[in-house]
Write a structure and sequence with these properties.
The chain has about 120 residues and is an alpha+beta fold. The protein contains five helices and three strands. It is elongated and about 60 Å long.
């Protein structure tokens, strides 16, 4: 894992841990021992992935952002449609095996339904 990915993962964990209070972007990058530039870029990437929400806030006379984790609701009906739940080969399915999630057509088709309709996830 690259440093960038590692920092992004640490940042997201930190943001999630802060719950509904959120965390100031400036406090986040300090806790991560990252530069303000890295912290800003991490937040922009997480925001682009729709994982966080940033609210502009005045703190100690300076503008910054309060970062919140965006809770994603999962529709239970989408989980009930996972093809693995009804697959006859589930017990033989393994990574890099003859039967594998990477070459499973029903699973791939099911995943593409989320690409077509992101609100259903």
């Amino acid at each position: 894992m690259s440093r960038r990915d590692d920092l992004e993962e640490q940042a997201l964990k930190l943001i999630i841990d802060k719950g509904t209070d959120g965390i100031l972007q400036s406090a986040m990058w300090r806790k991560l021992k990252a530069s303000s530039r890295e912290g800003s870029r991490i937040c922009l990437r997480l925001e682009a992935k729709n994982l966080i929400k940033r609210d502009r806030e005045l703190s100690k006379g300076r503008w910054t952002y309060r970062i919140f984790f965006k809770k994603r609701l999962i529709a239970i009906d989408s989980l009930l449609k996972i093809p693995c739940m009804f697959c006859d080969y589930i017990y033989r399915c393994e990574q890099d095996g003859e039967i594998s999630p990477t070459n499973c057509v029903p699973l791939t088709e099911w995943l593409f339904t989320f690409e077509d309709n992101p609100e259903s996830s």
